[in-house]
Amino acid sequence: MAIGDTMELMKKDKNQDPIWQSAWTWARRQHEGASLDDATCAELAQWLAADPMHRKTFDEAARLWLLVSLVPPANDIPLPDSDRLADL
C-alpha cells in the first residue's frame, strides 16, 4: 500500500462506518498481545467470510495498526539537553 493510499484511508470518516469499526476492533484485539482463543478465532473467521468487504477492511485496519505502532508516542521522544542546545 502506498503512502497516498494510507493517507486516503485516514481521511475517511471511519467513525460512521460499522464495517471499519468492527475491522479496527478485530485488528486491535489481534495485536494487543493476548492471543485469541479458538472460539474468538472462529468468530473472526466467520466475520471475515461473511462479506468480501470485511476482509478488505480488516486488512486496511491491520496495516494502519502496524503503521501507527511504528510511531513512538510523543512522551517517548527524548528532549534535547538544554545545555547542548546552547552550545549550538
Helix content: 55-70%
**How does the major sheet shape up?**
none
Q: What's the rounded overall pLDDT mean? A: 80
Shape: elongated
The radius of gyration is 18 Å
* SSE order, one letter for each helix or strand: HHHHH
Low-confidence regions: none
Count of helical stretches: 5
Give me the count of strands. 0
Structural class call reads mainly alpha
How much of the sequence lies in strands comes to under 5%
C-alpha end-to-end distance: 40 Å
Can you put this structure into words, describing what you see?
The chain has 88 residues and is mostly helical. The protein has helices at residues 3-11, 18-31, 38-50, 52-69, 82-87. Helix 2 packs across helix 4 (52-69) and helix 3 crosses helix 4.
Main traits of this protein?
mainly alpha, 5 helices, 88 residues, single chain
List the helices and strands and how they pair.
Elements: H1 3-11, H2 18-31, H3 38-50, H4 52-69, H5 82-87
How is this structure best summarized?
The protein has 88 residues and is an all-alpha fold.
